[in-house]
């Protein structure tokens, strides 16, 4: 029996592995977040049955919000809740050694240990970014291979033959 696979991604942790979060403007941070979500959407079918990307709102006054978009659940935690805490709670709720597999992506060592002790597998943000690059290259290679096998829509012929065939088509005789 195949186990149902959950993938929890600490969003800011993965972004922070790519760029320095403290140096990003608000708009750049929004763009990095959008890019990560897009990458997760593109790869969600190959990564897990359910992909959950968590962004913490620890210093932001807000209620928890959840958006489901193209195979990825995006969670913005409530005020005073870190992504780490949210993910740890969810691992405890979702993990069952017989029916589920849970993978946690973070570079936070304490979160990795916590997830591991609850039965989840762990992956660092650096490893995950490499996995994203690898999977994107694989998909590009597959698309290129499919395109190269697609028959051409036109037959390449010389101008002379084209002219003769065009005359035949129009029923023009010399």
UniProtKB/TrEMBL annotation:
Q: Which domain of life is it from?
A: Bacteria
Task: Note the InterPro entries from the entry.
Answer: YacP-like (IPR010298)
A Pfam family of this chain: NYN_YacP
Q: What is this protein called?
A: RNA-binding protein with PIN domain
Q: Which organism is it from?
A: Abyssicoccus albus
